[in-house]
Amino acid sequence: MFKPILNGNEIIGAYNLQLVFLSYFIAAFASYTALDLAMRIGESHGKTKKFWIGGCAFAMGGGIWAMHFTGMLAFELPIAISYDVTITIFSLLFAIFASGCAFFYVSQKTNTYTRVLLGGIFMGSGVGTMHYSGMQAMIFSGSMYYKPIYFVASIFIAIVASTVALRLIIYFESNEQKENYKYKFFASLIMGLAVSGMHYTGMNATVFISNVSTTALSDNTATTPLLVFSILGITMLILVISIIASRTQGKFNLLEFSNNQLEALVQKRTQELKALASFPAENTSPVFRVDSNNILLYANSPGLSFLSGWKGQIGDQMPSPFAKLLNRTKMENGDNKLEIFQNNKTFEFDIVNVPEMNYFNIYGHNITKRKIAESNMTIAKEKAEQANQAKTQFLSNISHELRTPLNAILGFTELINRDSKNPLPDYQKQQLDQITSSGKHLLKLINEMLDLATVESGNIKLSIESVEIVSLVEEVIIMCDTHATQNGIIIEHEKTLADRVFVNADVSRLKQVILNLVSNAIKYNKPNGKILISYIKQGRSKIRFGIKDSGYGIPDEQKDKVFKPFERLHSDIKNIEGTGIGLTISKQLIELMDGTIGFESVTNEGSYFFIDLHLSQNIPVAKDIKDPSNLPVINLKSNEMKTVLYIEDVEVNIKLVENILSLRKNIRLLSATRALDGIEIAKSEIPDLILMDIRLPDMDGLTAFKELQLIKEVKNIPVIALTANALEDEAQNALKLGFKNYLTKPLNIEEFLKTVDKLLL
After folding, report:
1. Which residue of 43, 91, 426, 720 has the fewest CB atoms within a 10 Å radius of its CB?
2. Is the N-terminal amide bond of 746 cis, ω within 30° of 0?
């Protein structure tokens, strides 16, 4: 990589090649996502079609913007650079808007070449506007101008790239390559190359002029890796989830089609049975009449053709399968069915006893199409289940891969903030707080996506018990107090109930729902507003918990979107972070607790969200037991040295734990990057505590734990799981197996130290 230089007053920048390749990857990935989502536009109508158009616009426009921003970070100048927030946001919104307009126009039923050309010009011009408005957002000690030739070339490349992209979309939509991933993959590579080419051509058109001397030049790359990680993590997460949603939607569409097809065939079969009973001689399906001795008395023409395979005729014994069917009917005194596959067709036979005439009627009908439909439905169901499992596993893997670096980012930033011996300057502390806030926001997004996937898959497990709701609300209020105070919000808690009130609920999930509702009441409130929390009994068996705010309220046209996933309200009023799935998860969790959730809202007056839950009939006996997690941390005796073994394959995580445990002067840390190496160290050193990652390269943590249990000398050493996998099932499996605790990354340092202290005492 070349260094940026100053040539007179002209600044000649340099590129970080790693970030250049990263910007191309983002452009290609965004192109693939847009192509994939665009396939759903032609299959949809009404609101659903608008949803897919919006998804395409967000994927393409947001991806191009992210590519541009990453490309700007790749471009290094020897002067300090910052960005105007308003112009930067405008460039993002304009890119999404231009992409949305282009996709909307292409979806219309007009001449293909006209809509592709005009749509390409519109999108290309929008991309160019996004690029150069983003350039205008740069704030530095100098000025810039554009070389006309390269400027025109960049706009031309943007228009050509957009036109090619839209033409590919129409091609895939109208041909058999619609679901061919190979074609879409190569197309996305070409589109990514074109989009990146536009950006870097535009950068080549830009001439930077410095107003500072050579001695004033500075390096502006210190925080780039962390910023790139945060932007890339959020962008990749949203784009990946978009693809998963598209794929899952396709699978469920197939399942719905098969169900409708089967239902139509069942209705058709009912009509056929009526026809069989009335017109046996004219029926195209086999019809037989046999006596009590299984002798054939009558057969229509299709029936005789069917029996020809057995060389049977009227007056003969019916073949063995029919004899068995007849015997079952006699024994059970009811109707029975028989399926026979013959000549690549499947026939189903119904036998009807006519006792007054001492004979049996056997009605056959061709169910080949029904069996094919059932087979297709089974296959579709299996594919849908596989897609659902794949989605859950994929989100689990994404969660693990994102949590691992987040563990280092949040862990080391917290350690830096805790370092009283080397305090940071105020401006650096503010920067560190921004990194921490962004990291925690990304962690919240990851947790919400996992919760949604778990709930939708039906794998969530609730522990219903008696929960005292008033005290639980008090805990939530304490958690939200700082956030409320910062916004000047007053929270009033009306404890109008004389007695303690217990409801049937899962305590952790109910706390999650209440925390989400109170946080929303703060976020969407007006400055210096109020929040009122109240309780109302609903008859003898239920209680209503309500949260009323004095915020902006919810417009009538948006009320039906409140509990829908990825719908964010008032995004035009306040810059509020979130995914739009918190209320979706809350509704599903409350319904799993056999409760209901709803709201009332008036625009500019506020909203009232409420939860109705069943009162518990089993009031637990009060016990004076302190929560160990709230006990103060007890430092070990300084003269008592303890040994801790950490089995972890990621070096930065080992370094983090080493730094955390350095707060305890009497702990010696040993480490191993492989499970087998860790087992050998445990046998030779006999540590006092073992920390173990669940995902290890040579052996998973659960298997490694079982191996430790087979060794007499170490089987009683307590083991704590430290893992980036936040799935509840894996945590429960680990605890059942014998792990003393299960801590998820990013680590909460206080919780981690308390757990270690408790097990080492």
Report:
1. 426
2. yes
Q: Rounded mean pLDDT of the chain?
A: 77
**Separation between Cα atoms, residue 761 and residue 759, nearest integer Å:** 6
Rounded to whole angstroms, the Cα distance separating 563 from 535 reads 22
On the question of pLDDT at 287 being above 80, the answer is yes
Q: Which residue's entry shows tokens 């709930």? A: 455
The Cα angle at residue 705 between residues 703 and 706, in degrees rounded to 5:
65
Q: Which amino acid is at 190?
A: I
**Rounded distance, CA 545 to CA 612, Å?**
6
Give CA–CA dist 53/72, Å, rounded: 28
Residue bearing tokens 């899952």: 248
- Whether 627 shows a pLDDT value over 60: the answer reads no
The 10 Å CB-count burial string (b at 16+, else e) for 14-26 is: ebbeebbebbbbb
The contacts of residue 267 (CB under 8 Å, 6+ apart) are: none
260, burial (CB in 10 Å: exposed 0-12, middle 13-18, buried 19+):
exposed
pLDDT at residue 607 is higher than 80: yes
* Residue 260 three-state SS: helix
Residue, of 33 and 668, whose pLDDT is higher: 668
Residue carrying structure tokens 């073949």: 319
Per-residue tokens: 243:
């693809």
Residues 6+ apart with CB under 8 A from 224: 16, 19, 73
Residues 104, 54: Cα–Cα separation, whole Å: 9
Distance CA(204)–CA(210), nearest Å, equals 17
pLDDT band at 549 (very low <50, low <70, confident <90, very high): very high
Q: What is the pLDDT of residues 477-532, one digit of tens each?
A: 888 888 888 888 999 988 776 567 899 998 888 988 998 899 888 888 888 899 99
Q: Could you identify the residue written with the tokens 């028989």?
A: 338
Cite the DSSP H helix spans in 419-488: 426-457, 469-486
Q: Nearest 5°: phi and psi at 120?
A: -65, -40
204: tokens are 């080549």
Burial 401-435 (b: 16+ CB within 10 A, else e): ebbbbbbbbbbbbbebeeeeeeeeeeeeeebbeeb
**236 vs 25: CA distance, rounded Å:** 10
C-alpha 226 chain-centroid distance? 23
Rounded Cα distance, 476 and 463, in Å: 20
Q: Distance between CA atoms of 91 and 350, rounded to whole angstroms?
A: 70
What's the distance, Cα to Cα, between the start and end of the chain in Å? Answer: 53
Q: What DSSP character marks residue 526?
A: P
* Whether the model pTM is above 0.90: no
**Is the predicted pLDDT of residue 424 greater than 60, yes or no?**
yes
- Smallest CA-to-CA distance from 84 within 138, 122, 22, 132 is with 138
Strand partners, 493: 533
Q: Give SS3 for 86.
A: helix
Q: Is the CB of residue 574 less than 8 Å from the CB of residue 504?
A: no
Other residues' Cβ atoms within 10 Å of the Cβ of residue 1: 10
Task: Kindly provide the b/e burial profile for residues 176-192, where b requires at least 16 CB atoms within 10 angstroms of the residue's own CB.
Answer: eeeeeeebbeebbeebb
Preceding amide of 628 cis, omega within 30: no
Q: Report the alpha-carbon distance of residue 193 to residue 249 in Å, rounded.
A: 29
Rg (CA), the chain: 34
7 by Cβ neighbours in 10 Å (0-12 / 13-18 / 19+) ranks as exposed
Full set of structural domains in the chain with CATH: 1-221 (no CATH), 261-372 (3.30.450.20), 461-614 (3.30.565.10), 632-760 (3.40.50.2300)
Could you give the CA distance from residue 665 to residue 429 in angstroms, rounded to a whole number? 27
The kind and range of the H/E element at 503 are strand 502-505
What is the phi/psi pair of residue 488, to 5°? Answer: 70, 25
- Both structure tokens of 274: 């009526």
The tokens for 665 are 């002067």
Report whether 137 contacts 81 (CB < 8 A). no
